[in-house]
Amino acid sequence: MFSLNWLFVAIGLLTKSVETANAATFPMLFLPYVSSSFIPTETMPSWLHALAENQPMTPLIETVRGLLLGTPIDNNLWLTLAWFGGLFIISFVLATLLFKKRKQN
Hints:
mainly alpha; 5 helices; elongated; ABC2_TM_bact-type; ABC-type transporter activity; ABC2_TM
């Protein structure tokens, strides 16, 4: 989840007020609800199934669930690491560049 912190830093640096930064991060709160955390994604409508299967929270939840229940985690661990690792790299670089730009002005 460290990567989400850097994403929020980048969003905060992109916005001009605290209120806007807060509002911009609000949709992230709903990602766990559009995942496999409460119901299997196979039971979702096709458009929601596609969204739930292709976002970072589903593999994270499936990995934690598998580790806690002792069930196979398949490739969910690698998907989780790829999602959050990629998100970290992109967010960190973006936040660093935005901070340097803001510091120069």
